[in-house]
Every structure is written in structure tokens, then in C-alpha cells.
TrEMBL record:
This is Ammonium transporter 1. It is a multi-pass membrane protein. It comes from Hirondellea gigas. It is found in: Membrane. Pfam families: Ammonium_transp (PF00909). InterPro entries: Ammonium/urea_transptr, Ammonium_transpt_CS, NH4_transpt_AmtB-like_dom. Gene3D superfamilies: Ammonium transporter AmtB like domains (1.10.3430.10). Keywords: Ammonia transport, Membrane, Transmembrane, Transmembrane helix, Transport. Belongs to the ammonia transporter channel (TC 1.A.11.2) family.
Length: 177
């Protein structure tokens, strides 16, 4: 499955979107840092993999259907690594910073990524408390921030900062939903 995805499926999709003669690009498709190419491809492949594997029979047959047994510090460390990685990935998607105007594009991509991630995290934090939870949730907030950063990848080089705020807030609502 992994060999098929990385060897055959992803290169074709990346070529469709990012090559000089890409048919998606000729139609007006713009994906600066991979919302469609990377995240949509990964999400669809995860869905297909889950459908191929099927449900974990016997795992959740008991009355308590909560999922337990994860490490908050390790989840936090992984989340922070992803948050910083998004800054490098989205900013680095410009490919260069030595030509005139490159620095502006990189700076705009990083600022929009931060704004979208923060607004996604804050949105989830507030909704989680308003939904009746008595405690703040670091993990929910962290996942909301990651959702905000994922959602801004395609247009982080062109969206204005207020648009990044709306994008992240919307991503927070979608994640919580």
C-alpha cells in the first residue's frame, strides 16, 4: 500500500498540480504548500486504508467506548514538532529566498500559517468549554491549531491575514464538528 502510494499515486498527483504544464494549474488551481496535493491525498489514502482494514472487531464491544491510554506529553511534543514543521514547510514552499520578492512571499506564508493555526486552536478551545466541558483541553487545542495550519496550506502565500484568521476559525469549527 505504501509503495503504491509513494511510488505511483502521489507523484502523479504532484505532477498534475505543480509541474510547469500541470493541467490543474492551467485551469486556475493554486496549491502553494500542499492542502490538496499532500493533505487531501493523505486523507483519502487513510480513508481507503481504513476501509480496506475494516472495523477492529471486539475492540469496542464493552459499555465504556472511550479511547484511553495515550501520553499527553508525547502527544504535545509531536504536536509542537508538527507546528514548527508547518512554519518551515509553508515558508519553504517558495523554494528560494534570494530573488526579489521571495522574502515577502515567505514572510506572508509564515505569518498566515501562524494566524490560521492560532485561530483554529483558540476556536476549538472556546467551543470545547462552551460545549459544557469543565476543564480546558490541551490536546483539543493542539489539534485545532493543527487543523488551522492544514487548512491554510494552499493559499498561505496569497491570503490576507484577516483571511487566514477566518480560515483557521472555520477549520476549528470543522475539526470540532
Amino acid at each position: 500500500y505504501s509503495i503504491m502510494l509513494t511510488g505511483f499515486i502521489y507523484p502523479v498527483i504532484a505532477h498534475w498540480a505543480w509541474s510547469g504544464d500541470a493541467w490543474l494549474g492551467q485551469g486556475g488551481y493554486h496549491d502553494f504548500a500542499g492542502s490538496g496535493v499532500v493533505h487531501l491525498t493523505g486523507g483519502v489514502s487513510a480513508l481507503v486504508g481504513a476501509m480496506m482494514l475494516g472495523p477492529r472487531i471486539g475492540r469496542f464491544d464493552h459499555r465504556d467506548s472511550s479511547i484511553s491510554g495515550h501520553s499527553v506529553p508525547l502527544a504535545g511534543l509531536g504536536g509542537f514538532i508538527l507546528l514548527f514543521g508547518f512554519l518551515a514547510f509553508n515558508g519553504g514552499s517558495q523554494g528560494a529566498i534570494s530573488n526579489p520578492g521571495d522574502g515577502v512571499v515567505v514572510a506572508k506564508a509564515v505569518v498566515n500559517t501562524i494566524i490560521s493555526g492560532c485561530s483554529g486552536g483558540i476556536t476549538v478551545l472556546i467551543i470545547y468549554r462552551l460545549a459544557g466541558e469543565s476543564k480546558w483541553s490541551f490536546l483539543m487545542t493542539l489539534n485545532g491549531a493543527l487543523a488551522g495550519m492544514v487548512s491554510i496550506c494552499a493559499g498561505c502565500d496569497t491570503v490576507r491575514p484577516w483571511g487566514a484568521l477566518i480560515t483557521g476559525t472555520t477549520a476549528g469549527f470543522v475539526y470540532f464538528g
